[in-house]
Design goal:
The N and C termini lie far apart (75 Å). The chain has one domain: ABC transporter involved in vitamin B12 uptake, BtuC. It contains ten helices and no strands. Helix content is 79%, strand content 0%. The longest helix is centred in the N-terminal third of the chain and has 33 residues.
């Protein structure tokens, strides 16, 4: 058996999945950090996950259209709720986001309580199954990601708070089922956080950081035989440290003129 070929057949789709998630989450993450609502992705992703678990509780086909619709409906409902609360009680929005996350997580646990495979489903929601991604599934993800990017870069200046939350919900619905909750949060926040003091080339640096994090994480997990999601999280975080350090250095002052 050609082991290298088998690994390439597994890591190739996984890397493309990571790049697609990076493509949509980097610009949204910069906006999330600017708005000061860092944990919104956890809340909306957890609500989308609750939709997936609810669909499974109804014995709907895994990864079928009904499950996608349930996840998207749940995420959109969560986004609409957070839009309303941000407008009505902006001073406590972060607390509302945290409460939404806890309620969705607890709801998922309740739905999984009687499921003999509940622990497995919960683990899949948190850490994802990026190594099980196949090319056929990535085709639809690529189309959705392209639509999200076109919408964001073409309409971001006039979509408003509601438009942002709805677009964010759509992006998270796709990504949380693809790579899991931990990687969704990491991809959204870590590159944006590492470059938050940059004035030039920030978007390109974020994209490079995300892509390298997925690539190194997947290779490292294959070499060390460790869970891919967790290794990718650590790889991206470790890569972010020097990026943050370099971008935080004060600009060198020009030498004083000689008299």
């Amino acid at each position: 058996m050609n082991i290298a070929g088998v690994e390439a057949g597994i890591l190739g789709p996984a890397l493309v999945a990571g790049l697609l998630v990076t493509a949509t989450h980097v610009p949204l993450g910069i906006q999330v950090l600017a708005r000061g609502i860092v944990f919104i992705d956890l809340a909306v992703a957890q609500v989308a996950g609750l939709g997936v678990i609810f669909a499974d509780w109804l014995h709907l086909e895994a990864h079928g259209w009904a499950v996608q619709a349930a996840a998207l409906a749940a995420a959109l409902a969560g986004a609409l709720l957070l839009t309303w609360t941000e407008k009505r009680w902006p001073e406590v929005q972060e607390a509302v986001i945290g409460t939404t996350f806890v309620l969705a997580a607890s709801g998922a646990l309740l739905l999984l309580a009687a499921n003999p495979h509940g622990a497995e489903h919960l683990k899949e929601l948190l850490v994802g199954q990026i190594l099980w991604v196949n090319w056929s599934r990535l085709t639809l993800v690529a189309l959705v990601s392209a639509a999200i990017l076109v919408t964001w870069f073409g309409m971001r200046d006039r979509m408003g708070r509601l438009g942002f939350y709805l677009l964010f919900a759509a992006a998270v619905t796709v990504s949380v089922q693809l790579v899991g909750l931990y990687l969704v949060f990491t991809t959204l926040i870590v590159p944006a956080l590492a470059t938050h003091r940059m004035r030039k080339g920030r978007l390109a640096t974020c994209y490079a950081l995300g892509a390298c994090g997925y690539a190194l994480g997947l290779v490292g997990s294959a070499m060390l035989d460790l869970p891919s999601g967790a290794v990718i999280v650590w790889a991206m975080a470790l890569l972010a440290v020097p990026v943050f350090a370099l971008s935080s250095r004060p600009a060198a002052r020009p030498p004083a003129p000689l008299h």
